[in-house]
Each structure stands twice: as structure tokens, then as C-alpha cells.
Write a structure and sequence with these properties.
alpha/beta; 5-stranded parallel β-sheet; single chain; elongated; disordered C terminus; Rossmann fold
């Protein structure tokens, strides 16, 4: 993939002087149009060989465009906070909002390439990581992002000459370190690893652009014109950028499904409830203080029918833990900040570090439930959300997080009873709204959405636990028991098989 970037491309000074002002003006106009449009985030990845002009190119873009609406993220070795979360967490946090441009100096490609060169990542694991990245970038594009990936290339001799020239100039000598010369020795390994990575991730929705890095003027004009052309074309393209990536829904031919099959008559008397509550709260308290849990994290996801008892169940769970160890994340309609990012961004930001617990009261499943039923997103959006959610939960599991998901189900009759009771009790009136009553009229649509959700997202690593919640005592004990069993199983597995880094 690098042959055309070793031809000795150059731009004369006179040509550059003529082209630069026109390009700068056009880039500023396109950047203004991007902000006015307010629907498209732009992600620019800058990668390549040492000395190939990555930093200089970023500086040129800042000089040619309005720096107030640019952000540059430089990634080096992960911090302690980043190491205690999934690999992609720090990149999710850095994504630019709609209408802005984010430049990544180093990106989600840097660590896999480095690890492959050092021999810490075999080819199978590298390919698996690239598949994960392809799906991540497809999600960004599906969310409306423009993704531009630049690889700045130098031949081995070209890199050596470039480093010598930088080292010789007092103004640039600081950029050449012992590590720069050391990496020159691994040039062949870099080309092999990078070539493989670029081939694996050169997708139609986010292709790689290889730029020769020898001549500063050629590199700057090339990148500037590519960015301009991409911005102009994307802004002019009014077609729907989304497309479904899930198969069509299967027709329902009988009345049996995962919800109608539940026995909602199950109950637990007060004496048995109090005994088992003490038992499982005690077990949970011990498990989250277990030395092995300090290497893991726990994510509890609560969904359910309105008035099914999520809040009361969550309170019984948190009563068993130190308040400093957990965070409750209530999920409502997205804020302006959240709407300016990909859908899953607002959940990634709340992923706990190891030894901690995040409890989501409503979750990322809102897209395939309320947004689907109420028409808050397109069919393409919620269809592809199943894949994105499964990817998200798989990534959490692979990094060591324990994901436990609950759906609390009550009958229509029980829901109506609880709604009326809430209206009568002063301190519970805030729990019942006009929207709750309106949602009852769409019960069949929500029922179908829940069944599809369970069928498509109950995986071996993050299965759904359906909770018969007509009796609150029974529901709360089932939830506590399930959490304890999942935690015990995961911590015992860690003892038998150390976490694969």
C-alpha cells in the first residue's frame, strides 16, 4: 500500500504560494458550513512513521482553519484510570461533537501496531482487534460522522534522512529522541504490521489515505485538499447516511414469547423475604469486598415496565455496598451534549473502573425500546443498535467487566393498580406522569420491542434475567440472588484462569 508514497512527490514554492491562500479560504468556508449544519462530527486520524510530518500537518490545519472549533487528542501510554477500563474507553471520551473536527494524533490503531511489533500481540489477536475497530468506525459513520484516516509514509532511507535533518536544525532537534532512532531499527517490522493493519481496515466507509511525508509543501497541500474535498462532498450529500445492519424482524405466529411465558403469580411471604434479604445482601457485601473483585468491575442494567419496581430493587442492592464503591446512573432523555455524540457515548462515559460498580436505572436499550416505539429514531437506527449494543457488552466482558441485565415484568392489571396507588400517595406522586398513562396505550408495541430486544441481545456473556415482578419481595430476592451467583461464578473463573491481557 506504500508504493505510491515513495515516488518523491514535491511541490514548488511558487505553486504552494499560489495554492495556499485559496485552500485556506475554502477550508474556513467549509468549516463554517460544518458548524452551521450542526449534524456531522469529523474525525481525522493522523498516523505514520516517525519524522513523516504528523505534528507539522496538525499545526498547518490549526493555522489554516479556525482553531476554536478544532480539538487535538494525543494518546500515549494509557493512564492508570484508562488501564482500569476497556481499551476503547479513552477514545470514546475524546470523540468530537457534531459540527466540530477532532484530530487524533495517535489513535485506536497505535497500540495494536506497537504491540504487534514488540511481539505482544499475535496475528490472530491483531485481526480480532481490527475487526472490532472496523465495527467501531462503521458505527461512527452510521451516526453521521466523517472519518478521515491519514498514514504518513517515508521510505527507510527517507526516514533516516528526515531524522538527521530535524536533529540538525536547532528549532526541531528536540523532536528527535533516542526512541526515534531506536524505532528506525524496527522499520521493517512497522511496515509489515502497518501494511497488514491498513489492508484489514481499508473499508469503503473509512478508507486509508497514504501520503508521502518527504516534502512539507506536498504533504500540507495534499492533506488540506483531501479534507476540503471530503467536507464539501459530505455537506452536499443530503441522503440518509444510515442503513440497517440487522435482519428483518421475524413475524409472530402464536401468542407465546419470553414475556407471556413468565409465571407472574410467584411470590414470597414476609418472613422468607426478610431471611433471604439478609442472606443475599450479606453475600453481596462480601463479594464486592473480595480481593479478586478489585481486578474486575460490575455493571448492573435495570429495565422494566413502568412501575415494575426498579427503584426499590436498586435500593436493596445498594444497601449491601459502601456508597463510595458504586454509582447510580439514571438515564432519561439525552441532553444537548449527548445528542451531539454517537448514541453509545453517554454510556461509555459512566463505565466503572476496576473494583467499582455502576448501576444503570434505564440503559442503552432505550434505543430499541422507547425510541423505537415512539419514533424518536429511524428504523435504521434501532435496527443497527442491536449489533452496536452486543459489541459494547462484548467489549466490556472481554475487558473483565461483569454485566448483569434485568428486565422487570408486571401484568397490566398490577401496573394499573400501582399507578392508581401512586396518585394517592403524596411522596410517590412524582413517580406517575401523563407519559406513563400514555405508554399504557402502546402496550402491544412495547411488548413486541421487549421480546425482540431479549431475543437479539441475550448473549452468553451478557444474558438477560427476566424478573417476575408482580410480587416485589420475590423480584428483589431474585435480583439479589442473580447478582451474587453471577459474581461468584466470575470470581471463581478468575481463580481458575487468570485474566487474559
Amino acid at each position: 500500500m506504500f508504493e505510491s508514497a515513495e515516488l518523491g512527490h514535491k511541490i514548488a514554492k511558487e505553486t504552494f504560494r499560489v495554492e495556499e491562500p485559496k485552500l485556506r479560504a475554502a477550508l474556513l468556508d467549509a468549516q463554517f458550513d460544518l458548524r452551521e449544519n450542526g449534524k456531522i462530527p469529523v474525525v481525522i486520524l493522523v498516523s505514520g512513521c516517525d519524522g513523516s510530518g504528523k505534528g507539522e500537518t496538525i499545526n498547518v490545519l490549526y493555522e489554516w482553519m479556525d482553531p476554536r472549533f478544532l480539538s487535538t487528542l494525543a494518546f500515549s501510554a494509557p493512564s492508570d484510570e484508562e488501564r482500569e477500563r476497556p481499551y476503547m474507553w479513552r477514545y470514546w471520551r475524546a470523540l468530537p461533537p457534531k459540527g466540530r473536527i477532532g484530530i487524533f494524533a495517535g489513535s485506536w490503531y497505535s497500540d495494536p501496531i506497537r504491540d504487534r511489533i514488540l511481539g505482544d500481540l499475535d496475528k490472530g489477536d491483531l485481526d480480532q482487534r481490527m475487526d472490532q475497530i472496523n465495527r467501531f468506525e462503521a458505527m461512527l459513520v452510521n451516526e453521521g460522522a466523517l472519518v478521515l484516516k491519514f498514514w504518513f509514509h517515508l521510505s527507510k532511507d527517507g526516514q533516516r534522512q528526515r531524522l538527521k535533518a530535524l536533529e540538525k536544525n536547532p528549532r526541531t532537534a528536540w523532536r528527535v529522541t533516542k526512541e526515534s532512532w531506536a524505532r528506525l531499527k524496527t522499520y521493517d517490522k512497522l511496515q509489515e504490521a502497518a501494511g497488514h493493519v491498513l489492508r484489514m481496515t481499508n473499508t469503503p466507509w473509512a478508507p486509508w489515505i497514504v501520503v508521502e511525508g518527504t516534502d512539507d509543501r506536498y504533504r500540507s497541500l495534499t492533506v488540506g485538499k483531501i479534507v476540503l474535498d471530503a467536507l464539501q462532498k459530505r455537506l452536499a450529500d443530503t441522503r440518509d447516511q444510515n442503513f440497517p445492519v440487522a435482519p428483518p424482524l421475524a413475524p409472530k405466529i402464536d401468542s407465546l414469547d419470553v414475556l407471556t411465558a413468565l409465571d407472574l403469580t410467584q411470590s414470597l411471604d414476609k418472613k422468607a423475604y426478610e431471611s433471604q434479604l439478609a442472606k443475599y445482601q450479606g453475600r453481596l457485601s462480601e463479594l464486592v469486598r473480595h480481593p479478586e473483585f478489585a481486578k474486575r468491575s460490575l455493571i448492573l442494567a435495570f429495565e422494566g415496565s413502568d412501575a415494575a419496581g426498579k427503584g426499590g430493587s436498586i435500593r436493596r442492592v445498594t444497601a449491601a455496598m459502601d456508597a463510595r464503591q458504586y454509582q447510580i446512573v439514571p438515564v432519561a432523555a439525552p441532553t444537548e451534549e449527548e445528542r451531539a455524540q454517537p448514541y453509545m457515548w453517554r454510556f461509555w462515559r459512566h463505565i466503572p473502573r476496576v473494583g467499582r460498580v455502576s448501576i444503570f436505572d434505564r440503559t442503552w436499550y432505550g434505543r430499541v425500546l422507547v425510541e423505537r416505539v415512539e419514533g424518536f429514531c429511524s428504523e435504521a437506527d434501532w435496527l443497527r443498535a442491536y449489533t452496536e449494543i452486543n459489541d459494547f457488552e462484548h467489549e466490556l466482558h472481554k475487558d473483565g467487566a461483569i454485566v448483569v441485565k434485568f428486565w422487570l415484568q408486571i401484568s397490566d392489571k398490577e401496573q394499573l393498580k400501582r399507578f392508581k396507588e401512586r396518585e394517592k400517595i403524596a411522596f410517590k406522586r412524582f413517580k406517575i406522569t401523563d407519559e406513563d398513562w400514555r405508554n399504557r396505550d402502546k402496550g402491544d408495541a412495547y411488548h413486541a420491542a421487549v421480546c425482540d430486544m431479549v431475543d437479539r441481545t441475550s448473549t452468553s456473556t451478557a444474558p438477560w434475567t427476566l424478573v417476575e415482578a408482580n410480587d416485589k419481595n420475590f423480584a428483589r430476592i431474585k435480583i439479589l440472588r442473580t447478582i451474587c451467583e453471577r459474581l461468584e461464578g466470575a470470581l471463581n473463573a478468575v481463580k481458575l484462569k487468570p485474566k487474559d491481557k
